[in-house]
């Protein structure tokens, strides 16, 4: 059974650019959640996708957007990058979006904005 | 939103010592998970424990949902236990995990 994978592992972008991060969910999981972890802090929820629809969103601006594909893999897109967007971006998958579903995390993508 | 507080924020142990990490939360939850984040950033699932007690080797966890806290016990600590331990909860109405600030553990040989 393959776990959650993310690509790329590291990325350096310039302020104002756009970036796309990718996540493949664990086999059989139909729900993907994205989190942002700033240095020294706990992860913060960005949004969740369930069966290709956005299914909840945290306190992030609209320039953070996402997609989920029929195979349940997902993308996180960030437009007009700001210096504060520098962080570890974590993707998690679960068997469902309701209560009782444990989330499993990928290794993360470390984004640096200069 | 729900508040999640972890204590202590930092902990230094000698190899072989035991420790207890605490997680307090401010609202009813239907999901509570404990994670260990390794130096490379990977979050490793330790326990899914919305209530009750579980044990896995040298680690055990207890959640008392009615009193809104959870405890993670580490016995006979090893240097490989070093890292950051996070508690994360999900409210009854909602689908996101809210994380605490973490406990940074260093185990010295």
Task: Describe the fold and architecture.
The complex is a heterodimer of chains A (114) and B (109). Chain A is mainly beta and 114 residues long. The radius of gyration of chain A is 13 Å and the shape is globular. In chain A, strands 2, 4, 5, 6, 9, 10 and 11 form a seven-stranded mixed β-sheet that branches. Chain A has a four-stranded antiparallel β-sheet with strand order 1-3-8-7, with no helix packed on it. Chain A starts with a strand and ends with a strand. The model of chain A has no long low-confidence stretch (mean pLDDT 94). Chain A has strands at residues 5-7, 10-13, 19-24, 31-37, 44-50, 53-57, 64-68, 74-78, 87-94, 104-105, 109-113. The termini of chain B are far apart. In chain B, 0% of the residues lie in helices and 60% in strands. Chain B has 109 residues and is mainly β. In chain B, strands 2, 4, 5, 9, 10 and 11 form a six-stranded mixed β-sheet that branches. A five-stranded antiparallel β-sheet of chain B has the order 1-3-8-7-6, with no helix packed on it.
Protein topology:
The complex is a heterodimer of chains A (114) and B (109).
Chain A: E1 5-7, E2 10-13, E3 19-24, E4 31-37, E5 44-50, E6 53-57, E7 64-68, E8 74-78, E9 87-94, E10 104-105, E11 109-113
Parallel strand pairs in A: 2-11
Antiparallel strand pairs in A: 1-3, 3-8, 4-5, 4-9, 5-6, 7-8, 9-10, 9-11
Chain B: E1 4-7, E2 10-14, E3 19-25, E4 29-37, E5 43-48, E6 52-56, E7 59-64, E8 69-74, E9 83-91, E10 98-99, E11 103-108
Parallel strand pairs in B: 2-11
Antiparallel strand pairs in B: 1-3, 3-8, 4-5, 4-9, 6-7, 7-8, 9-10, 9-11
């Amino acid at each position: 059974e393959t776990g959650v994978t993310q690509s790329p592992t590291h990325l350096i972008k310039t302020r104002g650019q756009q970036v796309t991060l990718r996540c493949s969910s664990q086999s059989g999981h139909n729900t993907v959640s994205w989190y942002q972890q700033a240095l020294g802090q706990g992860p913060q929820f960005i949004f969740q996708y369930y069966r290709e629809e956005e299914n909840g969103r945290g306190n992030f601006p609209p320039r953070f957007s996402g997609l989920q594909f029929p195979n349940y893999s997902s993308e996180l897109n960030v437009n007009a990058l700001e210096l504060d967007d520098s962080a570890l971006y974590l993707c998690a998958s679960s068997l469902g979006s309701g209560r009782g579903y444990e989330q499993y995390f990928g290794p993360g993508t470390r984004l640096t904005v200069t | 939103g729900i508040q999640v507080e972890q204590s202590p924020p930092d902990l230094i142990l000698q190899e072989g010592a035991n420790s207890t990490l605490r997680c307090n939360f401010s609202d009813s939850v239907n999901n509570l998970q404990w994670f260990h984040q390794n130096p490379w950033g990977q979050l490793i699932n330790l326990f899914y424990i919305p209530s009750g007690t579980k044990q896995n080797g040298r680690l055990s966890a207890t959640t008392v949902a009615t009193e809104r806290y959870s405890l993670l016990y580490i016995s006979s600590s090893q240097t490989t236990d070093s890292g950051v331990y996070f508690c994360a909860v999900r409210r009854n109405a909602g689908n996101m995990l809210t994380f605490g600030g973490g406990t940074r553990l260093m185990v010295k040989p």
